[in-house]
Structures are given as C-alpha cells and as structure tokens.
Specification:
- The chain is mainly alpha-helical.
- It has one domain.
- The protein contains 5 helices and 3 strands.
- It has a 3-stranded antiparallel sheet.
- Strand 1 and strand 2 form a beta hairpin.
- Helix 4 crosses helix 5.
- The longest helix is centred in the first third of the chain and has 40 residues.
- The chain is globular.
- The N and C termini lie far apart (about 85 Å).
C-alpha cells in the first residue's frame, strides 16, 4: 500500500491545488512574520551603533553641524551617549530621549521652560536633522544637526524604543560629557 492508495491510486489536480492553497499561505505568513520580527531588531541594532557613535560603513560620510560653534565634523565625533547618556535620560543640558518621554507632549513647561507636542518619527527626523521640535521650536544650539537620511533616523528611533533605563556612567553631574569640553 503506497501513499497514492489513499486517493484511490490517483492524485487529482484538484487535490494538488487544494493542498497548495493551504500550504502556500502558511509558508508566506511564516516568512512575513519572521521578516517583521527581524527587521525591527536590525533597525534597533543599527540605531544603537548610531547612538553609541560607532562608525559602520553607512555612517562614514555623515556629518554633524554644531550651530553654536559654526563647525561641521564627522557625526561619530558627537555620539548621542556623550550628552544623553547610555540610558537616554539626558541630564541638565540634554533632553531625555527615551521613547516614553518623546512620545508624550510636554504641556507644562519643563526645566528649560519649553513646551512641545509629542514626537512622531517624522518629527524626530526633523529635530535630529534640522534642530526643530514638533512644535516648531528651535533646539539648543549645542545640539548637533546630523545629515542622517530617513532610514538612519528610523533606526535611531527604533533603538530609543528599546534603550536601557538604568543609570548611565557617561553623564556627569552637569548633565553632559564632552559638550564644549567641560560639560558646560
């Protein structure tokens, strides 16, 4: 008794199509689900590299313009961790970049006297590239303006969703390490 005996000795074209119509969607769904899970992890990993100032090939040509000093330097010279810390909490001179904070509007003036709308990914890109927050206010002149493309900013945004909230060894009591040399 062989495998084909179950089907009276024949496999009809109808059986083949029916089997394929059940199997193909399952395979496609599994593949798409795997890709959907892998993509954010890859984006977050790229975002971590950007945040930490590592220089993958994709960032070699990225520049950072410092408005207060009127200079342009390689972006790796100004990793986010220098002012915002490993945990993204910022400090006295740098904003909290954790996703939970960025996604909330600041209705009451914060320590700097600022109010702002909640950030979206597009707003975050505009802030990092142009130095403008969601409410149209100009960010600090000490904040570098980076020449990131939208994919690089999206990777950074993905990393900020996962960022560690533990205490950061990179932020001093002035709130910034490396800002204009002395945390000022």
């Amino acid at each position: 008794m062989g495998i084909f005996d179950t089907f009276s000795g024949k496999i009809s074209l109808r059986h083949v199509f029916l089997s394929l119509s059940l199997i193909v969607p399952l395979v496609l769904f599994s593949t798409l689900q795997f890709a959907a899970q892998a993509e954010p992890e890859n984006a977050a990993q790229s975002g971590k590299e950007i945040y930490d100032g590592l220089v993958p090939d994709s960032l070699v040509d990225i520049e950072a313009r410092i408005p207060s000093l009127d200079i342009v330097l390689p972006a790796a010279s100004f990793p986010c961790t220098s002012c915002h810390g490993q945990d993204g909490k910022g400090g006295l001179r740098a904003s909290d970049l954790r996703q939970a904070k960025l996604a909330q509007a600041v209705a009451e003036p914060d320590e700097s006297g600022r109010q702002r709308a909640a950030y979206t990914l597009d707003d975050f890109h505009r802030a990092v590239v142009n130095g403008v927050d969601p409410s149209g206010q100009i960010l600090s002149e000490r904040m570098p303006r980076f020449t990131f493309n939208e994919d690089q900013t999206a990777a950074l945004w993905a990393y900020l969703q996962l960022i560690d909230v533990s205490a950061s060894p990179n932020v001093n009591t002035d709130g910034c390490v490396g800002c204009e040399g002395s945390g000022q």
